């Protein structure tokens, strides 16, 4: 047995940026929490099913506790009565966290321009990616997940995002 090769392995040096390694791990293992309230949530179910298979992008571990999730997917209409609950879910998620607004209702209130419907979730929480459509196709939701993964590659590993964001429900 040649011991010189074994010694070379012990002395191997790996050089890279810590951000690149950490972000590579995050990119390949997104854990989404789905806040689904309407028809867009049905489209997300199709996205997670075998035909479109969100697991190809490393986001198949759906979480039902915000404390275990790093990607919040808001799919559907959000009323003013639900807004504090959505804000609490967002606040309970650990940093770093990302948000996708799926569909016209989550992005702008959709065609519900009335006194009960929140006119876009960006009034209360910061949004990283908007998905257009009513309801959007599963391919559009997959594109949003890939956009989040592209954003991940450019981020600093241990920074806190959206510190300057102040929504309607934040303490002033």
UniProtKB/TrEMBL annotation:
Organism, as annotated: Sulfurimonas aquatica
Q: Which GO terms describe its molecular function?
A: 4 iron, 4 sulfur cluster binding; iron ion binding; NADH dehydrogenase (quinone) (non-electrogenic) activity; NADH dehydrogenase (ubiquinone) activity; quinone binding
Q: Where in the cell is it found?
A: Cell membrane
Q: Which note does the record give on the cofactor?
A: Binds 1 [4Fe-4S] cluster.
Cofactor (UniProt): [4Fe-4S] cluster
* UniProt similarity note: Belongs to the complex I 20 kDa subunit family.
Keyword 4Fe-4S, does the record have it? yes
- Assembly notes: NDH-1 is composed of 14 different subunits. Subunits NuoB, C, D, E, F, and G constitute the peripheral sector of the complex.
Q: What is its EC number?
A: 7.1.1.-
Gene3D superfamilies, per the entry: 3.40.50.12280
> Which domain of life does this protein belong to?
Bacteria
Functional description taken from the UniProt entry: NDH-1 shuttles electrons from NADH, via FMN and iron-sulfur (Fe-S) centers, to quinones in the respiratory chain. The immediate electron acceptor for the enzyme in this species is believed to be ubiquinone. Couples the redox reaction to proton translocation (for every two electrons transferred, four hydrogen ions are translocated across the cytoplasmic membrane), and thus conserves the redox energy in a proton gradient.
Domain NADH:ubiquinone oxidoreductase-like 20kDa subunit residue range list: 39-147
Q: State what protein this is by name.
A: NADH-quinone oxidoreductase subunit B
């Amino acid at each position: 047995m040649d011991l010189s090769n074994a010694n070379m392995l012990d002395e191997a040096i790996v050089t890279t940026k810590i951000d690149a390694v950490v972000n590579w791990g995050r990119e390949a293992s997104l854990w989404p929490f789905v806040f689904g309230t309407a028809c867009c949530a049905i489209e997300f179910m199709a996205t997670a099913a075998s035909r479109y298979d969100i697991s190809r992008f490393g986001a198949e571990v759906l979480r039902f506790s915000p404390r275990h999730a790093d990607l919040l997917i808001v799919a559907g209409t959000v009323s003013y009565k639900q807004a504090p609950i959505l804000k609490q879910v967002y606040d309970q998620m650990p940093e770093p966290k990302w948000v996708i607004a799926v569909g016209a209702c989550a992005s702008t209130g959709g065609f519900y321009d009335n006194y009960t419907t929140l006119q876009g979730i960006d009034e209360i929480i910061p949004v990283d990616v908007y998905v257009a459509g009513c309801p959007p196709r599963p391919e559009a939701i997959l594109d949003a997940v890939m956009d989040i993964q592209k954003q991940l590659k450019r981020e600093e590993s241990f920074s806190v995002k959206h510190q300057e964001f102040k929504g309607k429900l934040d303490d002033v």
